[in-house]
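This week, think about what follows.
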Amino acid sequence: MPDSFQRAQRPLLLLGGSFDPPHIGHLRAALECAEVLRPSSCLFIPCSSPPHKTARRLLPFALRADMLRAALADLEANGPLPCPFAVNEVENERPGLSYTIDTLKVLAGRFPEARLTFAVGCDDFCQIIHWRRGREIPDTADLAVLPRAGCGLSAFLAALPRLRPDALPLEREEDGPPELECSYALPGGGKIMYISIPALDLSSSLTRRRFLTGRNAGLLVPPGVCSLLRKNEAYIKKIWEE
């Protein structure tokens, strides 16, 4: 990594989601993003009560958090990580629906010296304007937008002016990481970035369908997650089938 990029303030990278269950795509996206941004640490934040998934029962928060910890242990066993990876349970500390803006505000208060960077898939970025106080989210944490299968740079560029018409393009640093395709500055000091990484066409819903029909979930989820799925198979199937 070039020296000038290393000297920049290292962000605190945040990845949120229901992680029901966590799969290889989650881990690769986090790893690729962390290798580009070189954050001080990377926190996975399982959602407690996502407002957009109230029609389907999630696995209990504790089990999803355990699966994430098992997944991160598997990832670390495969080689060195660019920074510490950990699970943060902030969303399980309060009742009611879990809104991203509220969680980011809490974390900003807990890490006042950190530059928060929230990683989000491009498909979610295109909808973030419809999230609760979505326009405020980039003022609370920088956004690192990652491609998803079928949703890439062109979709990002189309959605950006709808979300924040006040975003101004930043010049690309000659010695910056090549995956950082473009960055935009906001008047309040925030930043929205598009990071080009391999987009894996995986999803938790695909994993659930495979598991519920008795098919092998190997290579979709890490071994530690597979182990927990098998250990709790009857209980998990009962919840996912409802």
